[in-house]
Specification:
Blueprint: H1 6-27, H2 38-44, H3 59-71, H4 74-78, H5 101-117, H6 142-154
Helix pairs in contact: 3-6
């Protein structure tokens, strides 16, 4: 029977610890999202770099996002589950400015006029297209806005290929 060298055992143990650490880090958002305001995050992040640290499959996060959606005036305009009301639905596959995390985060934080002033333009059209006011300063932190986006993604009812915006055309 062969013995395994102690160095090999230590290397495997270190790899296992690293993988467990990576899984834990991926499950928990970066701590600074809870400390930085949505407006400050938008100011500090280059266009196209904002990515939600949460997934729409995290039940506790989606539930928190739903509570925030209801308590921050979102439901007053977009309906209780985002299906539309006075303003367009946020759960279908028509993304007026784009459906990626970065664009949606900035749209909510800056409003549609602020978003356009940063070089974003309309890509889709809804039957109701009133300007969206900026809500970035109404959230306690950017973390709250990310949770709302997880809630919106969890209730998405459109074409699965468009859940995160219109896919790029093949070149």
């Amino acid at each position: 029977m062969k013995s395994i060298p102690a160095g090999m055992i230590m290397a495997q143990f270190a790899l296992l610890c690293a993988l467990i650490g990576m899984r834990t880090a991926a499950a928990d958002p970066p701590t600074d999202t809870a400390k930085i305001s949505a407006v400050d995050l938008v100011k500090s992040a280059p266009k196209g770099t904002l990515v939600n640290p949460y997934k729409d499959t995290q039940g506790d996060i989606v539930a928190q996002g739903e509570a925030l959606f209801s308590s921050n005036s979102c439901s007053g305009c977009h309906g209780p589950t985002g299906g539309g009301g006075l303003c367009p639905p946020v759960t279908n596959d028509i993304w007026v400015y784009g459906g990626d995390d970065d664009t949606l985060f900035r749209l909510i934080a800056l409003g549609s006029d602020g978003l356009q002033s940063q070089g974003y333009s309309r890509k889709g059209h809804e039957s109701i297209v009133a300007p969206m006011p900026p809500f970035g300063s109404t959230f306690k932190s950017s973390d709250d806005l990310w949770k709302i986006l997880a809630f919106i993604r969890a209730h998405y009812q459109g074409d699965p290929s468009r859940k995160f915006g219109i896919p790029d055309s093949p070149h």
